[in-house]
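ESCALATION

Customer reports they have been waiting on this structure for their group meeting. Please prioritize. Original submission:
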Amino acid sequence: MISLTINGLPVAVEEGSTVLEAARFLGFPIPTLCHMEGLSPYGACRLCVVEIGEGPKARLVSSCTFPAQEGLVVRTASERVLRARRMVIELLLASCPQSKTIQDLAAKHGVHRQRFRQEHEDCILCGRCVRMCEEQMMAKAIGFRGRGDRRSIGTPFDEKSEVCRLCGGCMYVCPVCELRCTYSEPDKVVCGGCANLSPPCIEKDKFHDMMCFLDPCVACEIEKD
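Update from on-call: job pushed to the front of the queue and completed.
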């Protein structure tokens, strides 16, 4: 077993666990997008960032790929972490503003607009479909191609794949295939009509090192009553 500290609590997890697995096993919610149970970690979306270390040497890492280490100090919901996640969500909204999955994440984390030019892409390169096709369907019909802003997903040489069984697994795991109504104006890009908004207490100034990580927020539930 490996001993580490998550959100100020000393915990022990099995050797070989990632920080994401350790935190979720103990009930600390961490949002993910490229990560999916049953598929290998990829660390593309950076939405699962956590803060490790203490003082000026503390840094942000993707929890789905970072291994749990002896003596590691982890914060899953510090002010720095939440600020980074909101920035990631804004960038995702700029790419695929009509994705229901991304819009729900935005509404939950208090992102009501994004400051970047909207691209209206149909792919965020999370790699879910590629890993599903290779690891679960054992087909390898699709894969990544190109580099930089020319990077995309498809079949080799854009030819019809002879190994694709038309199973639909790639569409099932895609976070941008399910669309939602939206607007073209940046201040109206997040619909939020079908999602629960982020608890208001998450912005309190006196908890910089550890913001509210409860899901749902207990204080907000009490206020409703």
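Sent to customer with the following note: Confidence is low (pLDDT under 50) at residues 196-200.
Escalation resolved.
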